[in-house]
Design a protein that fits this description.
Chain lengths: 200, 197
């Protein structure tokens, strides 16, 4: 075998060995850092805080209705979807604005109503995140007692969220408001079909 | 063209390509970092994640200190700046002495719970987060009402929200002021029908 061919084999072998070793080092380091191909990359501290704040801000414009649903809808991506507990879907900020303001209630600055807690956040493989929370809706029932206090009724709901990072920050891509243990009403057609806002 | 000049041209091309690739990679990294920074800055100004977590913890400690009244209310008062103010529910308390007196329950009440807080928003406020921040929170207070049945009584819940100003001090983040506002009892008729979302 000519010397030049032998030299070529030798060079190729050295380069291949080097590449192999390099890949081995990279794989080992990745394993040491907890990398697993089926586990999404962790969210940064900033991302977690921004998502926490998105969720914390959510009830304020909903309960106080300062601008007829606009700032409520701004919590969603432009094409965001809200799925309510009656199995209605609202897609896009325009429809979500209408949904939040469907009764055209006046602004009520000190109103509170949605008590949301137990917020868990999970990263997803596409660089986004999902989350869940519990929501208490509290109302008074029965007659007042001698001190004027009335008993409370609490209905608990769950939120199932998909968050997306946009140039405006983290937003709801999809938010579903579910009453656990209660089946949604029978559906007709496509689950994601946007129904008319005129309720039956 | 000689072999030598060919090799030179080849090296020049490689150098140019390598430089462009390095610059592109550098630009991508810098733009990504700046985008990440500007998103954070837009929402939190100069507040850092450390500040944010410290403020979260300050607010989380509040109901424990108030409901338990430990050390004759001094633990509660220590959550405020020395000139801190609490306002609301018919009270205006200024300074730590007045605040401690308000939370003093005689003996400590280590098992007492009464304030349930959620939906904590934190914003940089007028100073852009330089040593000061503002926040809001929802509050539920519960009390038992009516006759006892099998050892249990019905619960009455009052719904409120807090409006806070936080200040960074040598003791850490503290309340400069905390105001509590109850949900209006008589809301406009249309508001009663608001949808659950």
């Amino acid at each position: 075998m000519p010397k030049s061919t032998l030299r070529g084999f030798a060079v190729t072998t050295v380069i291949a060995s080097g590449l192999g070793a390099l890949m081995g080092v990279v794989a080992t380091r990745a394993q040491e850092r907890g990398f697993h191909p089926n586990i999404p990359p962790p969210l940064s501290l900033e991302d977690v805080i921004e998502i926490q704040q998105l969720v914390a801000h959510y009830p304020y414009p909903l309960d106080t209705n300062p601008d007829h649903g606009k700032s409520y809808a701004a919590n969603f991506t432009e094409d965001g979807i809200f799925h309510d507990q009656h199995d209605w879907y609202y897609r896009g900020r325009k429809d979500i604005t209408h949904a939040a303001n469907f009764d055209e209630r006046p602004p009520s600055p000190n109103n509170v109503g949605h008590f949301i807690f137990s917020h868990e956040i999970w990263p997803t493989a596409n660089g986004g995140a999902i989350g869940h929370e519990t929501n208490f809706l509290i109302s008074e029932i029965g007659p007042p007692d001698k001190d004027g206090f009335r008993a409370a009724s609490i209905v608990s709901y769950q939120y199932d969220d998909i968050y997306e990072k946009t140039p405006e920050g983290w937003k709801f891509k999809v938010r579903a408001h579910i009453r656990p243990g209660v089946d949604p009403p029978a559906r007709e057609g496509d689950l994601w079909h946007l129904r008319s806002l005129d309720r039956p | 063209m000689t072999m030598e000049s060919n090799m030179m041209t080849n090296w020049k091309m490689k150098t140019i390509v390598a430089t462009i690739a390095a610059c592109a990679a550098f630009a991508i990294v810098v733009v990504h970092a700046q985008t990440k920074q500007s998103l954070w800055t837009r929402e939190f100004g100069n507040l850092t994640p450390q500040d944010y977590i410290e403020i979260q913890q300050l607010v989380a400690r509040y109901p424990y200190a108030y409901d338990r009244g430990t050390r004759h209310g001094k633990d509660y008062a220590a959550l405020f700046t020395t000139d801190g103010v609490f306002e609301g529910n018919g009270k205006l308390l200024k300074g730590r002495d007045a605040l401690a007196k308000e939370a003093d329950r005689g003996d400590d009440a280590p098992q007492n719970v009464g304030h349930f807080t959620v939906n904590h928003i934190i914003e940089p406020g007028p100073t852009g987060g330089n040593g000061e921040a503002v926040g809001q929170q929802y509050l539920m207070t519960m009390s038992s009402i009516g006759p006892e049945e099998n050892g249990r009584r019905a619960t009455s819940i009052r719904q409120w929200h807090y409006e806070d100003v936080y200040q960074k001090t040598p003791e850490g983040w503290l309340f400069k002021s905390r105001k509590v506002i109850e949900k209006p009892k008589a809301r406009p008729a249309a508001a009663q029908a608001g949808p659950a979302k």
